[in-house]
Amino acid sequence: MNPAGPAPVCEASLASLVATGRFADRLAAAIDAVTAPPSVGHDTLWIGLVGEVGAGKTTLTARLVPALCKLGWPSDGAEEVASPTYAIEHYYLRGALLHADLYRLSDARLPQLSLLDTAARAALVEWPERIGAVAELLDVELHLEVVSKQRRKVRVVGKTPRGADLIRALAG
Questions:
Q1: Distance between CA 59 and CA 80 in Å, rounded?
Q2: Nearest alpha carbon to residue 35 among 103, 97, 117, 99
Q3: How far is the CA of 76 from the CAs of 64, 70, 93, 94, 105, in angstroms?
Q4: Average pLDDT along the chain, 172 residues, taken 10 residues at a time
Q5: What is the 3-state secondary structure of the chain?
Q6: Could you give phi then psi for residue 72, rounded to 5 degrees?
Q7: What is the model's pLDDT at position 73?
Q8: Are 69 and 75 in contact (CB under 8 A)?
Q9: How many Cα atoms sit within 13 Å of 144 on the Cβ side?
Q10: Rg for the chain, CA atoms, rounded
Q11: Residue 93 in contact with residue 68, Cβ under 8 Å?
Q12: Which of 147, 142, 131, 129 is nearest to 58 (CA)?
């Protein structure tokens, strides 16, 4: 991000599904603030979801989709979030949000995916570190950590100026 200083960071405790929902509401507002609607033209906001299996990556996405709907992102009313582990990519909100899971992939499979050609307003990518070309695109990383059976911690790290803007919006 900035060779002269550390990357911007924001942390939150997700002590319950209710707390995860509140964080998703804040994250949705921040994503909405730093992305442009498709009619304006835009570059995809790339968000890496980092954490061990069971850390809450898909759960956070499941809370984020309705939060974006509340902010006016387009919906057909059937946005039930499922883990993309086997399908690899799911689009939600009429293509405005891409949710991908790279756990089972390698760099060799990347050309077979539409991932890098997405026109989505934002892309949430689980296991982005598995494919270097995707990891390099990230504007921000959300590091999810299991604290206990019910509790998670999220650390948001900005990787680009746009990622820093998202953190400022999230913290604001």
A1: 11
A2: 97
A3: 16, 13, 7, 7, 30
A4: 63 89 94 77 87 88 93 80 65 88 66 71 91 88 91 93 93 81
A5: CCCCCCCCEEEEEECCHHHHHHHHHHHHHHHHHHCCCHHHCCCCEEEEEECCCCCCHHHHHHHHHHHHHHCCCCCCCCCCCCCCCCCCEEEECCCCEEEEECCCCCHHHHHHCCHHHCCCCEEEEECHHHCHHHHCCCCEEEEEEECCCCCEEEEEEECCHHHHHHHHHHHC
A6: 100, 5
A7: 92
A8: yes
A9: 27
A10: 15
A11: yes
A12: 142
Largest CA distance in the chain: 46
* pLDDT for 139: 95
Residue 98 to residues 9, 95, 130: CA-CA distances in angstroms?
Answer: 24, 7, 17
Hey, what domains does the chain have and what are their CATH numbers?
Answer: 10-171 (3.40.50.300)
Q: What is the pTM of this model?
A: 0.85
Q: Give residue 114's pLDDT.
A: 65
Among residues 69, 34, 63, the alpha carbon closest in space to that of 140 is found at 34
Nearest 5°: phi and psi at 86? -95, -35
Q: Which two tokens stand for residue 79?
A: 């946005």
Backbone phi and psi for residue 63, each to the nearest 5 degrees, phi listed first: -85, -30
